[in-house]
Design goal:
Two copies of one chain form a homodimer. Chain A is α/β, with parallel strands linked by helices and about 450 residues long. The first copy, chain A, has two domains: about 110 residues, Urease, subunit C, domain 1 (Roll); about 290 residues, Metal-dependent hydrolases (TIM Barrel, Alpha-Beta Barrel), CATH 3.20.20.140. The first copy, chain A, has 16 helices and 20 strands. In chain A, strands 3-2-7-17-18-19-20 form a seven-stranded mixed β-sheet, covered by helices on one side. In chain A, strands 8, 9, 10, 11 and 12 form a five-stranded parallel β-sheet that branches. In chain A, strands 5-4-1-6 form a four-stranded mixed β-sheet, with helices on one face. In chain A, α13 crosses α15. The mean pLDDT of chain A is about 95. The interface between A and B is large, with 74 and 74 residues.
């Protein structure tokens, strides 16, 4: 009998492997942070002696969710300003609030709060773009979350840098510092085509290429951005990206609400990835991304919550529900975006979007153990005919009981094990008092 | 000092009264099922000596949600068939499943499950249309929920009646039997204009009028229904309703996806009510109801989840989130359907929709005590700038801790006090096994 760290027994396992295998009365063996065996409980429990056994009867076991786009520390601005015109919202609320309040402390505590919320709703990996991302990385590592983070780069000063050159230098520092971390990964993130000069875009591309990491960028979030870019660039945004050598398997484009047929062909040809954020796109009235057409073209699409100023949660269940429903409503076709497709987008396709498809996003032997348990013994999840349907149309973040990341239990029976939840809530409440004051002066 | 049943102290109370009053550090006094005083904790606690004190620090206190349209017992079919063409879904799944399986037992246990789910997500009143509604009423009463229920009436036989005349007689029996119940109310519910003959519609109208109760009907759920009705009736559905004297303050029209400008004028003129079901409309790709225009016309609009075959939950938080987001996306206008408007739709406007605006839907002295407590001490509800925003954009059913209906505590700290939750889950699982079998033969 082999000694191992953890065995999870008795649950119904949704592997999200290429065959979408489902195993009833399953067992999963975890050792050294890795999934080393998956099978029927009866067979596997004889082979292993585990230090820790997790009883998963009446539970679904599945890969943790992959949140492909957020601004974690913006939890501090959650619900500060809603239901406003985009430019009013940005210019009169978000930008001034950020300019006055974002600092190391906010980045750190805001990210810890985000990690608490993400773990409590079943997310095990997130991709982040914000300011002071070294704090984001530090907080995520403390929380025990897998992440891909990058400092937002643009032509104007940020609370963290006075010039694009400083922003690039900071990003290079991140790339060096976190190079061999088991959880923290760094990407290069020019904010958008309308906020970055060609020189900055080129320097960002070169930096990403030097370190062989992804490039992340907001792209075509709404019609007005699309029109503005045609004015500015004299061509479509995606044609321009092609010209400046941005189109590759390592490009992660956030939003892509206005990705037209030619753009989709180019994205498919080059293997570019898309992160879809229906909650944010709906709440900000940005438009409806042509996701069914992207999938038809063969583009890999993951889901991202966007930040808490525009969502206002990091719960991937909500994102799945909206993804399944929004496109049905928009196309008057109830067959598009079926539940299974959407669950794959929130897990394995999200992992592929972030370039992590080999290590996470599904339950397969050899992958890192990023696993969640969802308790089924609840009125709103009864009866059970179809697991994917429950995840997309009935479930919610609060249904997640236990979360394992990289083989470590970070939440057990809804208790966070890596963080002091009350301490985080208290600290962010204090930061919020300061934010409120900055608006009343 | 006056002796009373319950006092709720220390919470932040959202009254949803005409002024949308919010009271910090509040106290609510409840006696004989009625709210007898609302004010600041310091003042009120001196006046009353309560048998039961509920400590509501770190909680929101608000009126329970009003679910204006559901088919409660259809919880038994939750997730049985999704992502299908409407006619495929109805003809090959829902109708055969109902014909083979709906009986007294399913109606009773399915409703108990629905009540468990509704209470656990903060709903205190629901309006129901289904088969064997005497069982629905019995289950709701046991659960301690306020309800307005009616037997579905149509021209063809149902599992409960062989002819429309039998359906009407059954409805009359319900009206007599439940006439003086404190929780159960009966309405008359012809299914829709495309399933009811003029004679049945007239008999239903007369019955509702005789007992002075509302009439509920599915109306203009999608474009194909609208076109079909013009063919059948030789005029628009709402003009036809006017002709047959259906337009009144006591008409509750479910869905109203295709309510055009003339229809809206007529609805406003006659005081007809609308129940909006965005989750179902999106999932079935029925279309997008012109709710912002209805509100502009002065129509009272409540929210309804629809049944669990087409939603698949009864969580009004999800309905609020979709209501706020869907119309922003559809109109490319982030200012429509702001959070406060949506919370009013889910509470006081819902109560008005059901003709219960005088007794529930807001926290006001003299109203029945239908009250929920929402725990705020959670990552996804931190920080707190705006209560309405949290309810609509961040919260979920699982955030509801305690529920009081008609002055009785039916859930405390998420434990149901009126029902044996495990017993209900077990019974519905057994029914689901039978449903599954009925499909494999």
């Amino acid at each position: 009998m082999q000694e191992i760290d953890i065995i999870i027994t008795g649950g119904k396992a949704l592997l999200l492997d290429p065959q979408n295998t489902i195993i009833d009365q399953s067992a999963l063996a975890i050792n050294g942070g890795e999934i080393i065996a998956i099978g029927k409980m009866g067979e596997l429990s004889k082979q292993f002696k585990a230090k820790k056994t997790i009883d998963a009867r009446n539970s679904l076991i599945m890969p943790g969710f992959i949140n492909c786009h957020t601004h974690a520390a913006m939890t501090c601005f959650r619900g500060m300003a809603d239901d406003l015109e985009l430019m009013d919202w940005l210019n009169n609320y978000i930008f001034p609030a950020e300019a006055k309040n974002v600092n190391h402390e906010l980045a750190y505590w805001g990210t810890l709060l985000a990690c608490a919320e993400m773990i409590k709703s079943g997310t095990t990996t997130f991709c982040d773009m914000y300011i002071f991302e070294d704090e984001t990385a530090r907080a995520a590592k403390e929380a025990g979350m897998r992440c891909l983070v990058g400092e937002v780069l643009f032509d104007f000063p940020s609370p963290n840098f006075k010039s694009p050159a400083e922003g690039l230098a900071y990003t290079r520092m991140l790339l060096e510092k976190w190079q061999n971390d088991p959880l923290v990964n760094i990407l290069v993130e020019p904010h958008a085509l309308y906020t970055c000069s060609p020189a900055l875009l080129e320097a960002a591309r070169k930096l990403a290429s030097d370190y062989n990491v992804p490039l992340g960028i907001h792209l075509l979030e709404n019609k007005s951005e699309k029109e503005q870019l045609i004015q500015k660039l004299g061509k479509g945004a995606v044609s321009f990206l092609k010209e400046i050598n941005y189109l590759s398997e390592k490009l992660i484009a956030f939003h892509c609400v206005c990705l037209d047929e030619n753009d989709r062909s180019l994205f498919a040809e080059y293997g570019c990835k898309v992160s879809h954020s229906p909650a944010s796109n709906m709440k900000l009235a940005s438009g409806i991304a042509p996701v069914p057409d992207m999938l038809k073209a063969g583009i890999t699409v993951g889901l991202g919550t966007d930040g808490c100023a525009s969502n206002n949660t990091l719960d991937m269940f909500k994102e799945m529900s909206l993804t399944a429903k929004l496109h049905k409503a928009a196309r008057l076709d109830p067959t598009v975006m079926d539940a299974k497709t959407v669950v794959r987008m929130a897990t394995i396709d999200g992992a592929r979007t972030l370039g992590m498809g080999k290590i996470t996003g599904s339950l397969e032997t050899g992958k890192r153990a990023d696993i969640i348990l969802i308790g089924l013994n609840k009125p709103h999840l009864t009866p059970l005919y179809n697991e994917y349907s429950h995840l997309v149309y009935a479930g919610g973040g609060a249904d997640v009981d236990t979360v394992i990341i990289n083989g470590k239990i970070v939440m057990e029976n809804r208790r966070l094990l890596t963080m002091d939840e009350n301490d985080i809530l208290q600290k962010v409440r204090e930061i919020a008092v300061r934010i409120k004051k900055s608006f009343s002066v």
